[in-house]
Write a structure and sequence with these properties.
Structural class: alpha/beta
Shape: globular
Helix content: 40-55%
CATH class of the largest domain: Alpha Beta
Low-confidence stretches: none
Radius of gyration: 17 Å
Distance between the termini: 5 Å
CATH topology of the largest domain: Rossmann fold
Strand order of the largest sheet: 3-2-1-4-5-6
Number of domains: 2
CATH architecture of the largest domain: 3-Layer(aba) Sandwich
C-alpha cells in the first residue's frame, strides 16, 4: 500500500554526500583550529544544517560567531562542496527506482533537507530526477534545522496546499530519513517515518516506524 505522499531527506537518503560535507567543513574549520573527527561529525553534526553546524563548532571551543562571519563561512563551504561534487556522485541503491515508481503511481514527492538548494539541485540534475519533486524545502526556507520539526512542517503544509485531499490523511504522509535527528524532526511534524541504515545502524533509528537496510526493499514492499 503506497503512502499518500512521500517526503525524502536528501543527504544520506538519495546520495552519499555526508563525507563531502564533512570534507568541506574541515577545509574551513581546521585552519581555524576547530576541526573534528568523522566520528564526531556522525555523532554531533550530521543532520544539522550548515548554520547550526558552524554554530556548534564555534560553541564547542567557546568562540563567538557573528552573522557576517557565519554567512562568509557558509558561502565558502558551499563553493567547496560544489567543486567536489562536480566530478559526479552516486545515488544510493534503489533510490532512483523508488522515486520513479512512486511518481509513476502519481504520488506527490517532496525533498526536505538541511542542505542548501545549491547543494541539492546540481545532484538532482546529474540524476535527471528534478522533475519528480513537487517541492524542495532547504536550509534557506526555515529558521531551525533538524531535529526541530520546522522543515517537515513546512513540507507537509506545502503538500496539503497543493493537494487538498492530503489534509485528511496527513498523519500517513511518510518521510524517508537516515538520522536520529531527521526522525525526530519528521515525528515532530506528525509524519510516518521509514529509516534507512545508510548512515546509522538500525538500533540508532528505532524511533522510526520502519527501518530498512536499503531503499531497494521498498520498491517491492510498497
Amino acid at each position: 500500500m503506497f503512502p499518500p505522499a512521500v517526503i525524502f531527506d536528501f543527504d544520506g537518503v538519495i546520495v552519499d554526500t555526508e563525507p563531502v560535507h564533512y570534507q568541506a567543513f574541515q577545509r574551513i574549520l581546521e585552519p581555524l583550529g576547530l576541526g573534528y573527527s568523522w566520528e564526531a561529525y556522525k555523532k554531533i553534526y550530521m543532520g544539522y544544517d550548515d548554520r547550526d553546524a558552524f554554530k556548534e563548532a564555534f560553541r564547542a571551543d567557546n568562540r563567538s560567531l557573528d552573522d557576517t562571519q557565519m554567512r562568509y563561512y557558509i558561502d565558502q563551504k558551499a563553493l567547496l562542496f560544489e567543486n567536489i561534487i562536480a566530478s559526479g556522485v552516486t545515488p544510493y541503491p534503489g533510490v532512483i527506482e523508488l522515486i520513479k515508481t512512486l511518481a509513476g503511481q502519481s504520488i506527490p514527492l517532496v525533498i526536505c533537507s538541511g542542505a542548501l538548494r545549491s547543494d541539492i539541485l546540481p545532484i538532482l540534475q546529474q540524476f535527471d530526477i528534478t522533475s519528480y519533486f513537487n517541492t524542495i524545502i532547504t536550509a534557506e526556507d526555515v529558521p531551525q534545522s533538524k531535529p526541530h520539526p520546522a522543515s517537515y512542517l513546512q513540507a507537509k503544509a506545502a503538500l496539503i496546499s497543493a493537494y487538498n485531499q492530503l489534509e485528511s490523511v496527513s498523519t500517513t504522509i511518510t518521510a524517508i530519513e537516515d538520522t536520529p535527528a531527521g526522525i525526530s524532526s519528521a515525528k515532530g511534524a506528525g509524519l510516518q517515518v521509514v529509516a534507512v541504515t545508510n548512515s546509522y545502524d538500525a538500533e540508532k533509528l528505532e524511533q522510526a516506524d520502519r527501518v530498512v537496510r536499503t531503499l531497494e526493499e521498498l520498491v517491492d514492499a510498497w
